[in-house]
Amino acid sequence: MKKFFIVIAALSCAILAGCGGNDDISARLDSIEQRLSALEENGTTAPTSTANPANAAAKSTDMADNKDLNVLSFELISTDPDATTSSVKHTYKVTNNGNAPLEYMSVDFAYYDADGNALDTDGRYKDIVIEPGKSVNMDSYGGDETTKANIASSKATSYYYYLVTPLADGNNKVDVNCETGKVKTSYSER
Fold first, then answer.
1. Is the overall model pTM greater than 0.70, yes or no?
2. Which one of 14, 58, 164, 187 is most buried, by most CB atoms within 10 A?
3. Residues 6+ positions from 100 with CB-CB distance below 8 Å
4. Which of 8-22, 29-43, 132-146 has the highest mean pLDDT?
């Protein structure tokens, strides 16, 4: 089994030679060396990273049970039913409850009537670093001329964020579905 991993590492080095600059290749080689060291020490390796752009789209880690990465909380702090002629504005305080800084986040919101029917959705993002325990306000707009008057509530339905420092497996993007609780990590070039 050890020989198999060494062959894989050698093949990875050959593939990496055609991907990116010297710093990129060095970082990837360091990652491979760390995995081989872990294998030699205890017979296991860290989860496969999608840090190689050649297979970034093909691999991700489903972490349905990993709530540690579901780190954002959303508190509705104000509503403005007359924000525009065709929509309402809901402002949320979004807090990073994790232990790592985030460098970008994107949130999807849904707007509902009093019976719980979804009337509209809205997506917003913040491209700033949010340190652990810190918050940012995020405005969201929902409705149109025909539904604006019927909007009774809203909530965050899903979000994703990028970590300043990637996870141990090399993944740097975390997708969270707030309604199902599913969490997925992947690698994305930034």
1. no
2. 187
3. 132, 163, 164, 165
4. 132-146
